[in-house]
Amino acid sequence: MLPTRAIVSLARARATVSAVSTSRRSMVHAAARANPSTWRSRPSDLVPRRWNTSSSSSSSSSSSFQSNYDQQQQLAPLGRALVATTKTLKSLLIFSTSTIGLGFFVWSGAHLYLEQYKCPTPPNLSSRVQSLLHGAWVREEYAMDPDVAQDYYKNAVDFATEEVAQALGLRLVGYPSASQQLYSNQQPPSSSSPSPPPPPQQQQQQQSQTSPRDPRIDQLEMDAALVEVHHRRARFLDAIGRDDQAARIWDRLWRMTDAAEAQSSDPATAATLKRPLMVRASGLLFARRAAECWMRLGRYDEAEEALAWALETAVTMEAAAAQNPQNGQQQEHHHHHPLGKGFSVDTQSDEIGLLTVLGALYARKRRFDDALSLFVRALQLTRQRKEEVVEQEPAKDTTATSKETPVSNPRDKWHCREAILMNSIGETLYGAATSEGSSKATAKEKASGKKQEESKKSSGGFGSYFWSSSSKDTPADEKESESEHRSDMILNDKEQEALGWMQKALVLAQEKSGKERDCDECAALVLNNLGMIYEMKGDKTLALEQFKNAVVHATTAQDYVGLESYMENVARLRDEAAENESASLP
């Protein structure tokens, strides 16, 4: 128990403190009412504070707070505005920095994902060119915008050319007019209006003033990374339907492969450059793609030249690889490394593909015998390759879902290729038979017209009246009818042979239906061809059934281009059947 005097003194002290605080609050309120614009009441003055026994710490903190508050109150309105603006700018700076950092992280992560999984680029390109190629791929595959994608590819070609030139120590002053004309979107000058040649003296002056071509320019054009950028640009132009520009790029690339083989095999040049050059094997793809574009443009001579070179090169490489297996393996590895994805290393597969494309070219040019020999050779190689492939059990992947998804058998690819080639042989045989029949029909019409003219000129004679009035033919007509009958039988046999090849192709393709897309596409094409043949023969019911089955297989293969054509055939026959039914009604 405390003494009575201590209790009394403590009560007096508390009363004194409360009185002081009350008087202080009353003074603050009075000052605020007197000048409300400049005086602000503090919470510490208005709210009663508890009694704190630690007087030293509370007094120091209250004194510091009081000094800071007094300094803020002494600032002018402009100073307070500056302080508020500084705080706002600081917050904005923190927010913008964090936003930019997050955006850069997302941007770099997206490009890293595209580089690793979706759109890998050549290793010798800078990040700027890689970003342009990634952007072009996105505009080509997802956010489809051909104009923007074309700008991306154009800038990628320009920047890649500058980077390779800097690596070679080459200054691009006026370089190179031929390459600019080749890779630009401008059309080459027409041959109908050639420019007149300069006089001999001026030619000599130009030759004397012209410096020899720098060999580094050839190395620049044959750089593997730059060639890959050109190839991607040509592939994009081909996809959007600009076959002329794509064909000129690919044509230039395959023509450079002869010189590229000599320079890439030179150890001194390779040590100096430290950059891989494109190899001769890469020209196989370029020549084939160029030939396909030339064929769509109807320029069969250029297509035949490219395919003939590619086929000769593939056969030569296969023979060299058979003689020297180690060299062939090194060449295949070098072939795969510089240009990356999209380039085949299997020369036998390239040979089969080139034979197929060249056979299709000859079939379009109505050189059916040449086309048939090429298709048969490709079929033999395909069957040989199919036998070489070891029969493997399809693996099962049960990690993703509970359902088992079998992986396709390696032999199924060659199985579908065999069906495609058999269909091509059937088409070629049928085309040869129909063209022969049409030519004979036109010749027969011309001969009958001549006979009618001769009969009109020689009318009035007894012999002519006898042969014309007789129910039998003349001896010459009998011989002609016998020959025509034999030719008709031969043509019928050729048509039956063609139908046999097509039906065999259909059986092979339907064996792997639902497993291989190529087989479903082949089955749809064969069924459409059979439907067209049956329609020409007058059996429209069977033709309609074939067209419907073609639609089913095209839907399974997701061949939307062919599906549209097949559905048009179905609709056309249905409309004709409906018109015939309405016409037969009374």
UniProtKB/TrEMBL annotation:
TPR repeats lie at residues 352-385. Residues 398-408 have a biased composition (Polar residues). It comes from the Eukaryota. Residues 28-66, 181-215, 322-343, 385-415, 434-489 are annotated as: Disordered. Gene3D superfamilies: Tetratricopeptide repeat domain. Keywords: TPR repeat. Residues 385-396, 442-457, 474-489 have a biased composition (Basic and acidic residues). Residues 54-64, 181-193, 202-212 have a biased composition (Low complexity). InterPro entries: Mrg3-like (IPR040201), TPR-like_helical_dom_sf (IPR011990), TPR_rpt (IPR019734). SMART domains: TPR (SM00028). This is Uncharacterized protein. It comes from Actinomortierella ambigua.
